[in-house]
Q: What sequence folds into this?
DNA sequence: TGTATATAGTTTATATATGAACAATTTAAC
DNA sequence: GTTAAATTGTTCATATATAAACTATATACA
């Protein structure tokens, strides 16, 4: 269905660039809403799962990542990570361990409970991703990523 | 730059479908951050501008839209609209007018101040959209929208 | 060595988002 | 025509996001 129909707009878009941009925006919103429902059933949020995915795939089994590294890998503000890790620590999914080499730094590590939860969630999430991106071949996906990469470059170009 | 580089990840993605999905997600995040900075300089937020854009383009000059209509056109919860319109009303950008035909309904209309602000912001926003989507021809944009539309259809398909 | 600067994390104020429960009102069903 | 169901908007609890101001620490450099 076209975006105009999905949003029940009375009038369409006069500029196709704008329509394309809103298509990206509302597709992300839809993907996020779908993921929200999925993770809620597991007692998680999409953002919390993302933290666990980074801890699992981007650090050694017992290494963990600092809050600054998480902030960088998630493209969010440091302040955001503080409250996010507060909630995850309260839920028993991760712990903060102080870094002996740099006393400013907290290393975030998954607990046994967190690991168990992640191992249960990940294959189900992979299926959801498969269903979401169903019907495209590798070349179409590469083309899509190239377009999106170019848009991200446009954003970062000085006006 | 590839997403792996932008997020400073140590390891890449093993599933291209997942990589493509994260590309959509982080492109939206980048676009939103860019727009946030732009609107902040005008004393607005991206969401507040979107409300004004809907009021301007989707309703007659003095008709306005109900909160339920705004909720539908923005794909957000009704509760969200309540607080959003509270803030916009407080800022003098819009007013709530009760609907004589249905006493449950509030009609949201732009004030003179809101209209003035919107007319100043819209051409600047159009330029930003042009820069963001620069370097694609109409056929590439249509192809992109078709891909995104298919993803939205995949999401809404029953598992 | 000392000082200036940078970095890590927290706190606060603010904006956006959801779902659930609620009141007021309208519409549908019988 | 009255009752049941649906719709509109609000309030509350909660999760995520930012920027700015702050403390504590580490690094650079002169």
A:
């Amino acid at each position: 269905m076209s975006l105009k129909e999905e949003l029940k707009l009375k009038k369409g878009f006069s500029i196709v660039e704008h329509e394309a941009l809103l298509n990206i925006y509302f597709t992300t919103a839809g993907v996020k809403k779908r993921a929200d429902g999925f993770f809620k059933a597991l007692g998680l949020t999409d953002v919390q799962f993302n933290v666990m995915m980074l801890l699992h795939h981007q650090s050694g089994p017992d290494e963990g990542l600092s809050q600054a590294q998480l902030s960088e890998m998630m493209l969010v503000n440091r302040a955001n990570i503080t409250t996010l890790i507060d909630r995850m620590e309260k839920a028993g999914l991760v712990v903060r361990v102080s870094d002996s080499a740099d006393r400013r730094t907290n290393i975030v590590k998954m607990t046994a409970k967190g690991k168990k939860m992640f191992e249960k969630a990940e294959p189900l999430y992979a299926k959801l991703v498969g269903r979401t991106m169903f019907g495209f071949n590798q070349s179409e996906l590469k083309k899509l990523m190239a377009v999106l990469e170019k848009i991200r470059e446009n954003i970062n170009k000085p006006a």
User: Anything to note?
Assistant: Residues 33, 36, 40, 66-68, 71, 78-79, 81-83, 102-106 of chain A lie near DNA strand C (CB under 10 Å from a C1').
